[in-house]
Amino acid sequence: MDRTALAARDADDPILRRERFELPDALVYLDGNSLGPPARRAQERVTSMLAAWRDDQISAWNRAGWVHLADETAARIAPLLGADRGEVAVTDSTSVDLFQTLVAACRARPDRPVLLIEQDGFPTDRYVAEAVASLLGRSVRQVPRDTLTQTVDDDVAVVTAAHVDYRSGHRLDAVALGRAARGAGAMTVWDLAHTTGALDVDLHAWDADFAVGCTYKFLNGGPGAPGYVYVAGGLDPEATIRGWWGHGQPFAFSTGWEPAAGAARFRNGSPPILAMQPLLAALDVFDGVAPRTLQERATALTTLFIDLVDERIGDAVEVASPRDAALRGAQVSLRHPSAYAVMQALIDRGVIGDHRPPDLLRFGFAPLHTRWTDVWDGIETLRHILASGVWEQDRYAARNEVP
Ligand SMILES: *Cc1c(COP(=O)(O)O)cnc(C)c1O
Predict the structure, then answer these.
(1) Residues lining ligand 1, CB < 6 A?
(2) Going by fewer Cβ within 10 Å, which terminus of the chain is more open, N or C?
(3) Taking the chain, what is the end-to-end CA distance rounded to the nearest angstrom?
(4) pLDDT per position as a tens digit, 268-313
(5) Nearest CA to ligand 1 atom 2
(6) Pocket test for ligand 1, best of 128, 214, 333, 354 (most atoms within 8 A of CB)
(7) Treating both helix axes as pointing N-terminal to C-terminal, what angle do 94-107 and 123-136 enclose, rounded to 10 degrees?
(8) How far is the CA of 122 from the centre of ligand 1 (A)?
(9) Cis previous bond, 271, omega within 30
(10) If you measure from the C-alpha of residue 385 to the centroid of ligand 1, how many angstroms do you get, rounded to a whole number?
(11) From ligand 1's centre to the CA of 196, what distance in Å?
């Protein structure tokens, strides 16, 4: 394997659509798992939305179709989840969506005292689960993520976990956990923050009751883009917030709250029309690409990255992600005692990943915009930094607020 062969693969890759994103040619962007790049057409969509607002003022809700925009966005995300359109709503943030679905799941299992969560998962998931437990008089049980399937029992109202762990990139066997939860009579709430847009998702096959996720990572929706909620068809979950946009007919302005069908009942206030524009531009880029295809390319990219680590820098870093591709998401983390400084040196040389404390260098491999040569160039730059010790310079020790 050499760079020339990889460049030839880039030139002839049926999935790679880097030219549809705003990414300078020289940039090696391996951070699409934290914040995806803007789609090329994002700017144009934002500009035309602002023009519709200026030209039509409030009439734009009808004329520009803003009134249906959240539904349309949800319908575009649904195929990436293996879901039907009525099963998905785009609203709020992952954290709020998690709160709403965990409360609904607990209320659907009134006699069960436990929320089962993973130990050391993403902080917001733990914070929210603890808040829901205290609100509803339940308790949180935390176990290592690879033991969730064995641990779910008939005390458990709901089991919730990130499909892919934000630090190690470890991927759960969703079918096995879904089956175990269903068998035990527990509800499931999946957090798909590090999954959707990069991996194969089939919420029906997973026996999932609920799922939530954000759109600013692999879906490239932009900073602060809205989250989404999945509610399995046939469920009639209790909604807690009951805002007017979760009403079946918001513009009837009726006295009593009647839930919208399906996931839309979890839409609370006015939809974020401005924030959905870059997201819709990005969702266009996914057109015609099946989730399974995304996963195949992501897996091939992470496999190449790990192979090149072993071959070229294996004595200087440790692979902290699963080597079994079936247990891995679309990211690879490497362990180094000075991971922060090493990452700063990489960023300084145009290779963008990120750092997670205490000792992880984290790299994401978004299947639509990561080139084969990005993998090669990322490793070569890292090899140079580690061999030269340039990361030891003082300027790479200065901490940024966002690591
Ligand atoms: C990024 C991420 C979130 C984000 O939550 P927001 O409320 O949308 O900021 C939630 N869960 C996990 C596992 C994440 O990685």
Answers:
(1) 93-95, 122, 124-125, 162, 166, 191, 193-194, 214, 227
(2) N
(3) 33
(4) 999 999 999 999 999 999 999 999 999 999 999 999 999 999 999 9
(5) 193
(6) 214
(7) 40
(8) 7
(9) no
(10) 31
(11) 12
Give how far Cα 65 sits from Cα of 70, 218, 221, 244, 264, Å. Answer: 10, 26, 19, 19, 17
DSSP state of 270: S
Ligand 1 atom nearest the C-alpha of 214 is: 8
| Spatial CA neighbour of 80 closest among 353, 364, 290 | 290
Q: Which residue, among 165, 153, 79, 64, has the nearest Cα to 116 in the 3D structure?
A: 153
User: At a CB cut-off of 8 Å and minimum separation 6, what does 259 contact?
Assistant: 236, 239, 246, 247, 248, 265
3-state SS assignment for residue 12:
coil
Locate 361 and state its tokens.
């260098």
| Tens digits of residue pLDDT in 314-352 | 999 999 999 999 999 999 999 999 999 999 999 999 999
* Closest ligand 1 atom to Cα of 121: 13
- 115 φ/ψ angles, rounded to the nearest 5 degrees: -100, 115
Residues facing 363 on adjacent strands: 332
